Amino acid sequence: MKYRIIVRPEAEGDLSEAFLWYEDKRKGLGHDFLLHIDAGIRFIARNPNIYKSEYRDTRKHLVKRFPYKIIYLIHNESLIILAVLHMRRNPALLKKRLRKL
Q1: In this structure, are residues 20 and 30 in contact, taking their beta carbons and an 8 Å threshold?
Q2: Which pTM does this prediction carry?
Q3: What pLDDT, on the 0 to 100 scale, is given for residue 39?
Q4: What is the pLDDT of residues 48-99, one digit of tens each?
Q5: Please, are residues 97 and 82 in contact by the beta-carbon 8 Å criterion?
Q6: Fewer CB within 10 A of the end CB, N or C, for the chain?
Q7: How many domains does the chain have?
């Protein structure tokens, strides 16, 4: 089954913030980060059920090389990317985002 990928505005903000942080550390590192995120999203699209369902049916994919996780939901024929968060971010942030859905 081919899933439609929806990236929530909050997740886009996460990506933008992380991109700028990595680019500030080393030129080109932000682009490398985005490539790893893109690879993670493509993996999720091919294997959406590979990860177990957690809090309120969310699932997470751990990004290679960077300490980030992609948090998503499967809803009908869509994959909804809720967040792209650093591993040390407070999990309450995700709960807050889920209340807005």
Answers
A1: yes
A2: 0.91
A3: 98
A4: 999 999 999 999 999 999 999 999 999 999 999 999 999 998 878 888 888 8
A5: yes
A6: N
A7: 1
CA triple 19-69-11, angle to 5 deg: 55
Residue 36 Rama label (left phi>0; alpha psi -120 to 50; beta): alpha
Q: Which domain holds residue 23?
A: 4-99
Angle between helical axes of 29-46 and 9-25 (0-180°, round to 10): 140
Would you say 22 and 94 are in contact if contact means Cβ atoms under 8 Å apart? no
Count of all residues that appear for the chain in the document: 101
Tens of pLDDT, residue by residue over 15-61, are 999 999 999 999 999 999 999 999 999 999 999 999 999 999 999 99
Distance, in Å, from the CA atom of 79 to the CA atom of 76, rounded to the nearest integer, reads 8
Which CATH number characterizes residue 64's domain?
3.30.2310.20
Measured CA to CA, the distance from residue 95 to residue 56 in angstroms comes to 9
